[in-house]
Amino acid sequence: MKKNKAKSLWKDFKAFVARGNVLDMATGVVIGGAFNAIVTALVNILLSVCTWAVPGGLSGLITVLPAVTSAQQGMNNALGLGQTFDKAMLQELAEKLANATYSAEEVTPSVIETVKSSITSNYTLYGQTYAYNQAAVINWGAFINAIISFLIIALTLFIIIKVFTYLSNKSKEFEARLQEQYYLAHPEERPVPPAPGAPSLKEVDLLVQIRDELRKQNPPKVEEKPLPPNDEGNKPE
Questions:
Q1: Whole-angstrom Cα distance, residue 107 to residue 84?
Q2: Cα–Cα distance between 31 and 28 in angstroms, integer?
Q3: What are phi and psi of 91, to 5 degrees?
Q4: Which of 101, 175, 212, 222 sits between 20 and 30 A of 230, alpha carbons compared?
Q5: What distance in Å separates the CA atoms of residue 184 and residue 43, rounded to the nearest whole number?
Q6: How far apart are CA 207 and CA 203, in angstroms?
Q7: How far is the C-alpha of 92 from the C-alpha of 76, rounded, in Å?
């Protein structure tokens, strides 16, 4: 019983995988993934061109809201490690924090690098500005970047669809011309157009389907025929 059930499941699975729409969907997913890589690369190129003149790129367009609690003020305001600081100040601030934390004998290049790593782990770089992770940051650059990306992707897809539609129409026109040339050379094979007012083939097929469905729902009644007489010539009661 289990063996037959397993065979049935395997048969259903093979039928499901072999269906045309499943194969088309799988092909679409693979082609879509490859196409997404092309569009992403194109968007990155166009974004670089659009933000070429912006110092630090769009990622540097941020607004840091004023600190409400002490946790949002930064690592050490007295040393310059507040809510934000310039990227060029990282090395100098790391040395100041190292000197304030360790003795002069303990401050070595490796210690300064450790302090620098500690600072960068508590701050996020936006363009040329470091912002404290616990501060409230409005990232205008990410918002503008998303809008530009959307417009570029929409424009790219629009152009691709227009080109594809144009080529497809040209291909259909070329096939129609070839077919017309063939019918001109072989007029006996040209299909006869339907008479005016006659239903099309699609309408005829639809009417046939409706007729068959009505016959299934309302089968014709079978008339009962009298039984033949028995051997003695008497009719059955």
A1: 25
A2: 5
A3: -65, -45
A4: 222
A5: 50
A6: 6
A7: 14
119 token code pair: 């600072």
Per DSSP, the residues of 151-168 read: HHHHHHHHHHHHHHHHHH
CA trace torsion 49, 53, 55, 61 (10° rounding): -70
Q: Which of 80, 142, 90 is CA-nearest to residue 121?
A: 90
Contact in structure between 194 and 200 (CB atoms under 8 Å): yes
Would you give per-residue pLDDT tens digits along the chain (237 residues)?
Answer: 666 767 777 777 767 666 656 667 777 788 878 877 887 787 778 777 776 766 666 778 889 999 999 889 999 988 999 999 999 999 999 999 999 999 988 999 999 999 999 999 999 998 889 999 999 999 988 888 888 878 878 887 888 889 989 999 999 999 989 888 888 888 877 777 666 665 565 676 777 888 888 888 777 666 656 656 655 555 555
Half-sphere exposure at residue 84, Cβ-oriented, CA atoms within 13 angstroms: 17
Query: Maximum distance among all alpha carbons in the chain?
Result: 135
3-state class of 194 per DSSP? coil
Q: Give me the amino acid identity at 192.
A: V
